[in-house]
Design a protein that fits this description.
globular; 67% helix; 18 helices; mainly alpha; single chain; 327 residues
Length: 327
């Protein structure tokens, strides 16, 4: 059937949102943990570009304006709730709606990507891809571009959204079923993990580029555009390998929960912030080896918990009138 969900995409989205949750757990401990630094590099190199790419794959010109409003609504609600948790944590006392640095930026970014792509609907996507990629390569030379309206991230990551809109879904879904490519994907992912643990001292300095929110720094010696190109290539290769590796058949629980990734994205960061504000991230989790492993392991139950249908709200409520049936 035309509107039948494709299990492969739901599986990919579930494992990808799990990496998002894991990444947001370890980010708090990267200052004093080589383990967390390696995990951070392995995840952040590709997880956001891939999520944005998949958002582009399912972009539809119809109701683009309504979806833009829906994502903006989700962003505002998430930003307000997080402000409360940040106040409880003692981090902030003022609310800045125009400069954002945490998880809500993604929702604002998807809203911008959706609206911008609609406005440029009469332009050949390949031209948009070329221009946006060039902007992404050179925007880092402007130190004034940063967290204001998530402008740096929006410019850096927009090429992945456009690339997703250009994908021939049916052909790619057939490609995902090839066993030879699954072995290739496994090999690339294993190689990337090994590199992140063995030579992370040479990779972790790319952290500001992987997040997409920072201008180029002096250690790049004026060659920031080449390092950004390297990050683009890593994101594309590892992201593609990740999709090849994920099973395409229906998997109990996993495939079903892969349909609720927006709810996971909305609630997991709020729960983490609230837990930290209440003192859950104490000395045991932040300073001991066992605590660090256990803190990371919390990503499993947290992902599963937030994948329950009750956590679809308020995102589902805001997007329901505009949500397509199917994948």
């Amino acid at each position: 059937m035309k509107n039948e969900r494709i299990a492969a995409w739901d599986n990919i989205k579930f494992f990808l949102i799990f990496l998002v949750v894991a990444g947001h757990l370890v980010v708090r401990g990267t200052d004093n943990s080589h383990l967390y630094q390696s995990i951070f590099t392995a995840i952040y190199a590709f997880h956001m570009p891939l999520f944005i790419f998949i958002s582009g794959v399912f972009y539809n010109t119809k109701k683009a304006a309504e979806k833009t409003i829906g994502y903006l609504g989700i962003f505002v609600i998430m930003r307000l709730i997080l402000f409360v948790t940040e106040v409880l944590e003692g981090e902030v006392t003022t609310l800045d709606f125009f400069s954002f640095y945490g998880a809500p930026w993604f929702l604002f970014g998807i809203a911008v990507f959706t609206l911008l792509t609609y406005l440029l609907r009469n332009v050949r996507p390949v031209y948009i891809l070329i221009v946006s990629a060039i902007l992404g390569l050179f925007i880092g030379y402007d130190p004034n571009i940063g967290d204001f309206l998530a402008l740096s991230r929006i410019i850096v990551f927009y090429p992945f959204f456009i690339l997703g809109t250009m994908l021939n879904r049916s052909s790619f879904e057939n490609l995902l079923k090839k066993k030879s490519l699954k072995f290739l994907g496994l090999g690339i992912i294993l190689l990337w993990i090994v590199l992140c643990f063995v030579i992370n001292d040479k990779l972790y300095f790319l952290r500001p580029l992987f997040t997409g929110r920072n201008p180029y720094f002096p250690d790049l010696h004026g060659l920031g555009f080449l390092y950004r190109l390297l990050c683009y290539c890593i994101a594309a290769i590892v992201g593609l390998a990740f999709m090849f590796l994920i099973p395409t058949r229906k998997i109990p629980v996993i495939t079903e929960f892969g349909q609720h990734t927006l709810g996971v994205y909305f609630w997991h960061w709020i729960i983490i912030n609230l837990a930290v504000a209440l003192g859950a991230y104490g000395t045991f989790f932040s300073s001991t080896a066992a605590g660090k492993v256990l803190w990371l392991a919390l990503s499993i139950p947290l992902t599963l918990l937030c994948s329950l249908k009750c956590f679809d709200y308020p995102a589902k409520w805001l997007l329901k009138p505009f949500k397509k049936t199917g994948s």
